[in-house]
Known about the structure:
The chain is an alpha+beta fold. The protein has four helices and ten strands.
Amino acid sequence: xxxxxxxxxxxxxxxxxxxxxxxxxxxxxxxxxxxxxxxxxxxxxxxxxxxxxxxxxxxxxxxxxxxxxxxxxxxxxxxxxxxxxxxxxxxxxxxxxxxxxxxxxxxxxxxxxxxxxxxxxxxxxxxxxxxxxxxxxxxxxxxxxxxxxxxxxxxxxxxxxxxxxxxxxxxxx
Length: 173
């Protein structure tokens, strides 16, 4: 008879209409999901850290995506705060992309939600980035990602520079 009483109480607790019944069902589903597990935890991961600068200034806020060059594993993501990041990644060679946004100059951040991507385009794609890190099993895995703005990458085009304007100086004589 005591078993029958407990069974009725449990059945009432699982009643879909009651808030406690919904909570108990969610708890049971959560426990079931965690008890199943995900199988193999994958390859070992190693702590990585470092800095990200653009023209020697720390990136205030952004993210880096760490893409394995062997395509055997998923990419890892690290958040950049005040020019620093920490994350975990599998060992091996990685390509690194960087993204960061900010409120454009002259706009009041309290009056707009608009943000511009200010990291130069080549660093935003794994196809065009030249940023590489090699994560070692032995460590330490500390990296300095030094980005250069597009203005700094382009050589100055001076009309008297014969590299860009061949024959101008010779023809003017």
